[in-house]
Amino acid sequence: KLNVDVDYFTKMLIQEQEEALKYNLPINAHSYNGYNLDPYSLPNGTETYDYIIIGSGSGGSVVTQQLSEIDGIKGLLLEAGSHEDDFVDVPGMAFFAQGTKYNWNYGTVPQKKSCLGLKGKKCMLQRGKGFGGTTLINGLVYSRGSPVDYDNWAAGGNPGWSYKDVLPVFKELENSHINGDPGYHGTKGLMNVEYSKFDSPHLNAFLASNVELGRKEIDYNGREQLGVSKAQLNTLNGRRLTTGKAFISKVNCKNMKLSDNSYVTRILINPKTKTAFGVQYIKDNKFHVALAKREVILSAGTVASPQILMLSGIGPQKHLKEMGIETINDLQVGDNYKDHPCFYGLNILSNVSIPLKPMHGYVEDYLKGDGVLTLPGNNAGVGFFKTNFSKIPQADIEIMLISPNRSDAFFQKGFGFTDSSNKALIEGVDPTKTFTMYIDVLKAKSTGYLRLKSKNPFDYPTVNTKFLEDDDDHDIKTIYYAINLILEMLETKAMKAIDAKLGKVVLPECKDFEYLSKDYWYCTIRYLSDSLYHPVGTCKMGPDPKKGAVVDNKLRVHGIKNLRVADGSVFPDSLAGHPSNPIMMVAAKLVKFLKEDLKLKN
Ligand SMILES: Cc1cc2nc3c(=O)[nH]c(=O)nc-3n(C[C@H](O)[C@H](O)[C@H](O)COP(=O)(O)OP(=O)(O)OC[C@H]3O[C@@H](n4cnc5c(N)ncnc54)[C@H](O)[C@@H]3O)c2cc1C
User: Fold this and answer.
1) Membrane-spanning regions, if any (predicted)?
2) Tens digit of each residue's pLDDT (9 = 90 or more) over 25-51
3) Beta strand ranges found along 388-545 (DSSP E)
4) Is residue 173 within 8 Å of residue 186, measured between CB atoms?
């Protein structure tokens, strides 16, 4: 049996990698409307449900599964994509998975101060499509952020969202195998959390170097967050555990209809009563309407949820008017686009190699739940640090340890680097020995925005991340500070033991600056920065719509009845962590609110 699997996986991985390299990622969603039908006409036939959920990513999958457990309800999940395959299941194929039909491939407008070494100076904006949403293509790191994040949500006028309030919900969702700090983890939930069995020598040097510098190895989802650790991962025996597999596969289909390839074009809202009553969507080149007797739950993610709200008449009035859309409620939808800017420009040489194997060798390890293929994008470890200029009592930098090999065939396409940036990055790199560290600005001051490109629901929205554009250069200063932390790590005995040294990366645009001077680094950062793909905040939660809030603390859209949002867009701010599991927590909270309304026990 094992050999059959090895042959099947080996062939499949080789073939799918080649296809991902050739595949042209979409630049809009027009393929859903093959006959170019008028999205503003309504079809006659309708179906009626209690709840309609839009999108099944980190948020929507949890809502769908948990709602389906309520006796006697009738629900509908509309997901634009479909089921996953064995290819995306392999964490080590994460970069290639981003080159497949599972990626929407939204993009941003050209940037002024970041992403300059990427094609068209545009940051990449990957988002997953299908049951599981962005968990189909993401880095699988389980990191809740700091308790301070949630305490700030609550202090900002959102009762019920302090860390004390949300910790039990994280625990309910989790099936932890990491032997973490007592009291902080659950073992009965549907989302598995484990360490990769694969031990990278580069990770061990990273951990030891930080211990040498006086930092601790910690459970970063436990008592303290500042320190270093092997990455806690949403995998199950080394395989990607998407929210599709963890939650959608457990849906009680007696109560819930799952509709794939169903692209939602707008939510139907009665402008007089300001009540959401249904959803328009296209499937198989035909428009459909589904009616919701109770509520519509929007979980299409930080990019598509604000787009759908605006298409439905909820958004900044001036902008909607320019687009020719009648405003039903004037809210600051699409503002407050917060993300984690990231620096990808470090090569660290070493004398320790992870020997290359033929593909079937990697596959044999993988099928035993071990080996490099169990590491998502080679991400082996994380560390949370604090700058000396931060005024907040929490981590503001994350450093991710990426084991060799970074020069795989998809590297340039996956990151969108120009030929000259790519050349500078791969020159002198031994793919078996060179590792890197990504620097993630956890508390970026730069804030972007999202707007409609047109009233055509099949056009992608316009996104401007405005990375590294904040007035006092806080964000670039944070990256520069983190680079110095890394240079200090390279001086430790642990790093010297693997002969770790900074590899020279000199971009043509930065070559006139003295190598390793501050100006050299600032130039390199502006070119080799991009998103860590953690956008949040475009439908932010808060008490006051005049201060930019789109949903209230029960996730109800302000001023509209029967409409809630449950995905990354409702975060008031970026977390000092990764958003996927916190979004699952938000979704589980939403189901609790719905149950309260139904007077059911939670
Ligand atoms: C490359 C990459 C690496 C990442 N690494 C990590 C990590 O290591 N850890 C972590 O915590 N986070 C990571 N993230 C981020 C994290 O995965 C996302 O923030 C999270 O999954 C988003 O959840 P969501 O529910 O908000 O939206 P999504 O998961 O994006 O779900 C939205 C769903 O809505 C569907 N949809 C969109 N538009 C429509 C429409 N019009 N009609 C119907 N359906 C629609 C989409 O197809 C999708 O399934 C990463 C992201 C990327 C891209």
Assistant:
1) none
2) 999 999 999 989 888 887 877 899 999
3) 397-402, 436-441, 449-451, 462-464, 501-502, 529-531
4) yes
Residue identifier of the C-alpha nearest atom 2 of ligand 1: 138
Q: Work out the number of other CB atoms within 10 angstroms of the CB of residue 237.
A: 15
Inter-residue contact 290 to 48 (CB < 8 Å): yes
- Mean pLDDT over 581-588 rounds to 99
312 lines ligand 1 (CB under 6 A): no
For strands 314-315 and 329-330, give the pairing.
Answer: parallel
For residue 84, the CA-to-ligand 1 centroid distance in Å is: 14
pLDDT of residue 431: 84
Among protein residues, the one whose CA lies closest to atom 47 of ligand 1: 129
What's the ipTM? 1.00
The set of long-range contacts for 313-317, using a CB threshold of 8 Å and a minimum separation of 24, is: 313/269, 313/271, 314/269, 314/550, 314/557, 314/560, 315/452
DSSP code, position 541: B
Helix axes 474-490, 518-527, angle to 10 degrees: 110
What band does 422 get if pLDDT is binned at 50, 70 and 90? Answer: very high
Element (H, E) at 295: strand 286-298
Residue with the two structure tokens 């597999």: 245
- In angstroms, the CA 1 to CA 5 distance is 6
- If you average pLDDT over every residue of the chain, what do you get? 96
Q: pLDDT tens across 75-89, in order?
A: 999 999 999 999 999
**Do the beta carbons of residue 59 and residue 239 sit within 8 Å?**
no
